[in-house]
Amino acid sequence: MGCCTGRCTLIFLCTLQLIAALERQVFDFLGYQWAPILANFLHIIIVILGLFGTIQYRPRYIVVYAIWTAVWVTWNIFIICFYLEVGGLSKDSELLTFNISRHQSWWSENGPGCVRKETPMAGLKGLDSHSYVSVIGCTLEYRYIEVMHSALQILVALVGFVYACYVVSVFTEEEDSFDFIGGFDPFPLYHVNEKPSNPLFKQTYLPA
């Protein structure tokens, strides 16, 4: 296969997905978003598996990758619905942190243009004497940043699914054509037919 084929395109898409997943994983770690962290970790493993299968001509691995892309699209649709508060979901809930903590997305306090306002609490001293009040001046609300992240993941995953199906079909056709010419058969059919004919030939001319 040449460099402009579906196989090379799928390799590029898997590499792009790895970069995007690693970037997202870093910010989810900073925000203590445990559910997305686990999902990203599994996504990285499956994408590496798909990348390996594409490079090594392993269609079964690519099929696993294609199935996962459908699951990954579903997960990111849920993330979009979560931050846009669709269907009774609330972006302020602790669903993504497994109700372990009240942390929100890292972008909620560190988005572009965001300024944190803190005020001292009466009667407290030391490092914990400040209480977080609000974030102002954000150029873009954090939930829209998360939605754009998920939308990008969906777009790349859908394109990856299409190319994965194409590459699997190409690999399967190549294997079938190779089998047809006896590429994987160490003992072709004519060898099998010749072996039993020799003893019969010898028995015909045995002396009485």
Question: Main attributes?
Answer:
single chain, 2 strands, 7 helices, cell membrane, transmembrane helix, two-stranded antiparallel ribbon, membrane, mainly alpha
Protein described:
The protein is mostly helical. It has a domain at 6-104 and 143-184. The protein is built from seven helices and two strands. A two-stranded antiparallel ribbon has the order 1-2. The radius of gyration is 29 Å and the shape is elongated. Residues 180-195 have low confidence and may be disordered. This is Sodium/potassium-transporting ATPase subunit beta-1-interacting protein. Residues 1-21 form the signal peptide. InterPro entries: Na/K-Atpase_Interacting. The chain crosses the membrane at residues 34-55, 62-86, 151-171.
Task: Enumerate the strands of the largest sheet in spatial order, edge to edge or round the barrel.
Answer: 1-2
Question: Roughly how many Å is the radius of gyration?
Answer: 29 Å
Question: Per the principal axes of the C-alpha atoms, what is the gross shape?
Answer: elongated
First-last Cα distance = 63 Å
Percentage of β-strand residues: 5-15%
Category from helices, strands and their pairing: mainly alpha
Number of helices, counting only DSSP H or I runs of 4 residues or more? 7
Helix-strand sequence: HHHHEEHHH
Which segments are poorly predicted (pLDDT under 50) over 5 or more consecutive residues?
A: 180-195
Q: What is the helix content?
A: 55-70%
How is the main sheet built?
2 strands, antiparallel
Mean pLDDT: 81
Protein name: Sodium/potassium-transporting ATPase subunit beta-1-interacting protein
Family: Belongs to the NKAIN family.
Main location: membrane
Keywords: Cell membrane, Membrane, Signal, Transmembrane, Transmembrane helix
